[in-house]
Amino acid sequence: MSYAQGMAKRKPHEVPPPYRRYAGTCMICGMGLQWEAGSWLTLVDRDGSPDCERHEGRHVLAYRR
């Protein structure tokens, strides 16, 4: 396979897969948080968990970027 065949150009109608985006830090545990792929409502930590380990609930966004 040549280089040109391996590096196929994406067609304009093809949408790239969703990815996580940095959101900020959790006010309670201080862990860095990301917006879940394809969502602006779900915050997850680096393990993909929306639950904070220091209290019985979800992460609380302290600083948003």
Question: What would you say this structure looks like, in words?
Answer:
The chain has 1 helix and 4 strands; from the N terminus they run H-E-E-E-E. The chain has one helix spanning 3-6, and strands at 21-26, 32-35, 43-44, 61-64. Helices cover 6% and strands 25% of the residues. With 65 residues, it is mostly beta strands. It has one domain (19-65). It starts with a helix and ends with a strand. The longest helix is centred in the first third of the chain and has 4 residues, at 3-6.
Question: What's this entry about, in short?
Answer:
By secondary structure, the protein is mainly beta. The chain has one domain. The protein contains one helix and four strands, in the order αββββ.
Contiguous uncertain segments of 5+ residues: none
Cα(first) to Cα(last) distance is 43 Å
Radius of gyration: 17 Å
The ordered H/E elements are: HEEEE
What integer is the average pLDDT? 81
Number of separate helices: 1
Number of domains: 1
Describe the sheet with the most strands. 4 strands, antiparallel
The fraction of residues in strands falls at 15-25%
Helix percentage = under 10%
Keywords:
65 residues; 4-stranded antiparallel sheet; mainly beta; elongated; 1 helix; 4 strands
